[in-house]
Amino acid sequence: MFKKLVFTSAFAISSLAAQAAELTVDIAGITQLEGDIYVVLYDSVSAMESNKATLAYKGAVTKLQTKVTFSDLSAGDYAILAYQDLDNNQKLNRNMIGIPNEPYGFSNNPRLMGPPSFDKLRFAVGDVDHTIQISID
Q1: Predicted structure pTM score
Q2: What torsion, rounded to 10 degrees, do the Cα atoms 128, 84, 112, 22 define?
């Protein structure tokens, strides 16, 4: 009986490992070598609406094109917001009517009027590595 339990547990672990994927986010459109780049990953409508990132990356802008990699992602739908924090205040600055005035972009690179929705930004990650491009401006 013990051998069967060990075999079942080992099988479950290897099955989970096979479902994990790596997501590379290729960010283009950076025009200024200053501030930090933020890449925020959401895994659901509720996570995005409550601004609770599933994963996030922050790094200094040192080149005009940046790649960020998220590892061990489960298969599913995700959405990404990326922005360049030019003044290092740790947020995306907006003007008086709420329009961002620092460079930003989203997964699927949509042109939006108003706030983004998870459905417009949604992309699928399967059990193989995946790369997406986001252009910020």
Answers
A1: 0.83
A2: 0
